[in-house]
Amino acid sequence: MKPPTKAQLARAGRKERIVAAARDIADAEGWSAVTVRRLADSIGFSQPVLYGHFPDGREGIVRAVALDGFVRIGAVLQGDVRAVATAYLGFAHDNPALYEAMFSLPTDLAFATADTPAELRAAFGGIVGAVGGDETRAETFWAALHGQAELSRHGRLRPAAHQERVDLLVGLFAS
């Protein structure tokens, strides 16, 4: 396999800058502030350059941010049930805009199908491993984690009971 050319490396670098800028704007102001025009202005690229990297515009950018998020969360979802629960909830808390791109914003990312991207499969693999390899059990654990993350993010759960909820969930799945 041939090493990438300078042009390919430059293109990849521009794409990474676009994704990072989208994530930064979303972190600071929410996803409604992330537009192709705003991104172009913030990183000094023309809108046609952004569309050259992401022909489907904002949707493609959100998809790229979400895929990056799955790589990031996949890197921390390692270990036993407690470690995975703590890492998952910590990631969701520390990266609310990124988590929103991964799970709440509309994308064409397919879950649990033959078309599921490798990044999603790898992240889910950490959850599967934590619960002993049973995918249905892993989906249930993931759903409980996601519910806690979303409800906490929107102030619907008592913050003081966070550790008690984690302990209860770990107790249910750590066998």
Describe this structure as you would to a colleague.
The chain is mainly alpha-helical and 175 residues long. It has helices spanning 6-29, 36-43, 47-53, 58-76, 81-94, 96-103, 118-130, 135-153, 162-173. Helix 1 (6-29) crosses helix 4 (58-76) and helix 7 (118-130) crosses helix 8. The longest helix is centred in the first third of the chain and has 24 residues, at 6-29.
List keywords for this structure.
single chain; 175 residues; mainly alpha; 0% strand
Short description:
It contains 9 helices and no strands. By secondary structure, the protein is an all-alpha fold.
How many strands appear in the DSSP assignment?
A: 0
The H/E string reads: HHHHHHHHH
Total number of helices: 9
**Mind summarizing the main beta sheet?**
none
Are there runs of 5+ residues with pLDDT below 50, and where? none
Work out the radius of gyration.
18 Å
Helical/strand content category: mainly alpha
* Average residue-wise pLDDT: 94
Shape: globular
Gap between N and C termini: 45 Å
Helical amount: over 70%
Q: Which strand-content bin applies to the residues? A: under 5%
